[in-house]
């Protein structure tokens, strides 16, 4: 075949083959090492899919963003991730690209543009949107490519992400590496759709199907796609047809395929075909290709040898990278003293919590152009379901205040991706009950990104959620208090203000925080409670509790709207001569055990009250810590009081009896003091 008939420049084809050779060398070395017991880690082979990332590498640079999956080691190699750092990471070594904390399924290497690797099928697509938002808003010509397999097309996260990308015309490429297998399941078994690329058209943007095993055809098609996206013409879905020769996980061949299927797949394998083409067209000689392959093998062997010599990541790193500051991590016996806010001064205004939240966002958006709001119905004239953003879209525009589809996973994913790129998103999820809809993005991605990447990347986003419960009329799916879900997830900070002053100051702290923060806002307080709030900017630090009422007989610990019930109960028992100290936690993670324990040392008794279900609630954790730390100094065991173990009832008669009330809290206080 003459060089002129190739449909691709000879030097480009040689470069693609060079990357394919490096990828295959990595694949072979891993399979050999695992088989021989030389090392051990989980491996999902991509044998047969080498052409896709190798070709893309000739059309993109390290400035372009990439998101990939656990089966993405070929993507990492082609993107330019250092092989030594990559192998050290897979082996859990301190010289790993992410300090050995993420492993091969979670590589983040911003130097090469490999931003996120997720082990959750399809979860990278919403995050890729956020990276694309940052590029678009900054006027950069970066392209974001999110890789996933055909199996991920069944995941709701991919559908939500595609819909949002189409609606907002984001510069993102949804790269479906269709290797014909959804883990162990054949395509016809899990979908009746004739293809995958056609789904893009239904969502209003371009979809194409390309031969992912033909470097010339794939290069031509991908060049058109990347040029389209880079020019700001919106997203593209690419279905790259290939074949996975290996099993879902482990080593060897795909044992789920028939012998005939496997033989046909190997015959179409891109590396072997491209090698033969280079020789046939006279572009390379056998000696040149042999030398190229030997160099790739040597590069990989050297990287593995050095990685095996690297020291394992030590236990001393256990809590490092959970948060930016290790002191924010709750630790047994370690109760740091955090400096409280100074005396707030200056002019004040009497406003509701809703207006305080709105003012905090206004200040943050004025100070930093990369602060933006996204969520359902957040735009004007409504300004969000609870009106906490009213007027902000009118003032700052619809790219700083972004009403979204009803798609919580897409919302949080976009916030995560944009925050990883350095923006400061505020995502509103409305009712905390919807936490379950997007919990994967929060718990597996926002919370873990800093840790899994060894702080190479992090996600400084703010998530606002409203809570009901104890106010009547919302029922079991709009009245829950789910803060324990969040506090049990390492990597998420949780703030829960009880008044307008704290709501404004804590939200400003949350927006500036280097870690993901969930701000919980009580619906009961948003408009019913007013306070004299300082005008302008001020901050209430996270992790600092506050004594709201001094006392000597018992420490009453609470947060959010339940704190006001505690005030009422304290006043009630004062008639009996019981002097109660009331502590407002304000921040649940980091938690201020120092001030809590100091108070209980003085009073000798403690009662923790919350609207959440009592069983396995935060109160149990606080009481356990108090009892362990102050045993022998207590006049009575620390006790907790929360809601009955039942869904929140629609019936007011049941709902108002199943959560703590001032009279029932007062009864618990009297019982504690008598014990």
Describe the structure.
Pfam families: E1_dh, Transket_pyr, Transketolase_C. Keywords: Oxidoreductase, Thiamine pyrophosphate. It comes from Novosphingobium anseongense. With 675 residues, the protein is α/β, with parallel strands linked by helices. The chain has three domains: 3-317, Thiamin diphosphate (ThDP)-binding fold, Pyr/PP domains (Rossmann fold), CATH 3.40.50; 348-534, Rossmann fold, CATH 3.40.50; 546-674, Rossmann fold (3-Layer(aba) Sandwich). The protein is built from 25 helices and 22 strands. It has a seven-stranded mixed β-sheet, with helices on both faces. A six-stranded parallel β-sheet has the order 2-1-3-4-8-7, sandwiched between helices. Helix 19 links the parallel strand 14 (493-495) and strand 15. The N and C termini lie far apart (94 Å).
Please give a quick description of this structure.
The protein is α/β, with parallel strands linked by helices and 675 residues long. The protein is built from 25 helices and 22 strands.
Task: Quickly list its features.
seven-stranded mixed β-sheet, six-stranded parallel β-sheet, 22 strands, 675 residues, alpha/beta, Rossmann fold, 40% helix, 25 helices, elongated
Largest sheet: 7 strands, mixed
CATH structural architecture of the largest domain: 3-Layer(aba) Sandwich
At the fourth level of CATH, the homologous superfamily of the largest domain is Thiamin diphosphate (ThDP)-binding fold, Pyr/PP domains
| Overall 3D form | elongated
Side by side, the strands of the main sheet go 11-10-12-13-15-14-20
Tell me the distance between the termini. 94 Å
Rg over CA atoms, rounded to whole Å, is: 28 Å
CATH topology of the largest domain: Rossmann fold
Helix content: 25-40%
CATH class of the largest domain: Alpha Beta
Number of domains: 3
Please report the number of helical segments.
25
Tell me how many strands there are.
Answer: 22
Provide mean pLDDT, rounded: 96
Uncertain spans:
none
How large is the share of residues in beta strands? 15-25%
State the secondary-structure class. alpha/beta
């Amino acid at each position: 075949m003459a060089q002129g008939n190739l449909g691709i420049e000879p030097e480009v084809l040689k470069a693609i083959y060079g990357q394919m050779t490096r990828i295959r060398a990595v694949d072979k070395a891993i399979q050999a090492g695992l088989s021989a017991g030389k090392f051990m880690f989980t491996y999902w082979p991509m044998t047969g899919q080498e052409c896709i990332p190798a070709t893309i590498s000739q059309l993109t640079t390290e400035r372009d963003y990439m998101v990939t999956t656990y089966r993405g080691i070929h993507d990492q190699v082609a993107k330019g991730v250092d092989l030594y750092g990559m192998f050290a990471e897979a082996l859990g070594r301190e010289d790993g690209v992410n300090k050995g904390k993420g492993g091969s399924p979670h590589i983040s290497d911003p130097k090469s543009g490999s931003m996120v690797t997720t082990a959750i099928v399809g979860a990278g697509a919403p995050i890729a949107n956020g990276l694309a938002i940052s590029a678009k808003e900054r006027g950069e010509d970066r392209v974001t490519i999110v890789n996933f397999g055909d199996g991920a097309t069944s995941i709701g996260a991919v559908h939500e992400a595609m819909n949002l990308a189409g609606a907002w015309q984001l510069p993102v490429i949804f790269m479906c590496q269709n290797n014909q297998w959804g883990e162990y399941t054949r395509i016809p078994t899990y979908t009746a759709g004739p293809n995958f690329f056609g789904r893009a058209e239904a969502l209003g943007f371009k979809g194409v199907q390309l031969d992912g095993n033909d470097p010339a055809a794939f290069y031509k098609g991908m060049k058109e796609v990347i040029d389209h996206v880079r020019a700001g013409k919106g997203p593209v879905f690419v279905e790259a047809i290939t074949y996975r020769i290996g099993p879902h996980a482990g080593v060897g061949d795909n044992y789920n395929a028939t012998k005939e299927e496997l033989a046909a797949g190997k015959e179409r394998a891109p590396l072997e075909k491209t090698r033969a083409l280079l020789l046939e067209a006279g572009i390379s000689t056998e000696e040149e290709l042999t030398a190229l392959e030997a160099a790739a093998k040597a590069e990989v062997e050297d990287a593995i040898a050095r990685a095996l010599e690297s020291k394992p990541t030590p236990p001393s790193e256990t809590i490092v990278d959970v948060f930016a500051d290790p002191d924010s991590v709750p630790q047994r016996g370690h109760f740091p003293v955090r400096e409280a806010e100074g005396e707030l001064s200056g002019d004040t205004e009497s406003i509701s919590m809703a207006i305080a939240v709105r003012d905090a966002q206004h200040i943050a958006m004025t100070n930093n152009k990369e602060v933006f709001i996204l969520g359902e119905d957040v735009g004007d004239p409504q300004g969000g379901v609870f009106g906490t953003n009213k007027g902000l879209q009118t003032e700052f525009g619809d790219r700083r205040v972004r009403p979204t589809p009803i798609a919580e996973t897409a919302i949080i994913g976009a916030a995560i991706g944009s925050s990883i790129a350095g923006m400061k998103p505020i995502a509103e999820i409305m009712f905390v009950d919807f936490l379950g809809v997007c919990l994967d993005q929060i718990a597996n991605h926002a919370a873990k990104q800093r840790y899994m990447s060894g702080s190479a990347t992090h996600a400084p986003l703010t998530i606002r959620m409203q809570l009901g419960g104890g106010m009547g009329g919302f029922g079991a799916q709009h009245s829950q208090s789910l803060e324990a879900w969040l506090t049990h997830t390492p990597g998420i900070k949780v703030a829960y203000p009880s008044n307008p002053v704290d709501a404004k100051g804590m939200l400003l702290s949350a927006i500036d925080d280097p870690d993901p923060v969930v701000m919980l806002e009580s619906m009961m307080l948003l408009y019913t409670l007013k306070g004299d709030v300082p005008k302008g900017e001020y901050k209430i630090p996270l992790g600092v509790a506050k004594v709201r009422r001094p006392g000597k007989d018992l420490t009453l610990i609470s947060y959010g709207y339940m704190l006001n019930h505690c005030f009422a109960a304290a006043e009630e028992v004062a008639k009996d001569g019981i002097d109660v100290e009331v502590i407002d936690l304000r921040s649940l993670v980091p938690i201020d055990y120092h001030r809590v324990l100091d108070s209980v040392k003085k009073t000798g008794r403690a009662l923790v009250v919350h609207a959440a279900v009592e069983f396995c609630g935060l109160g149990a954790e606080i009481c356990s810590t108090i009892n362990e730390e102050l045993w022998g100094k207590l006049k009575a065991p620390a006790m907790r009081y929360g809601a009955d173990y039942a869904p929140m009832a629609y019936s007011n008669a049941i709902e108002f009896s199943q959560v703590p009330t001032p009279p029932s809290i007062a009864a618990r206080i009297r019982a504690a003091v008598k014990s």
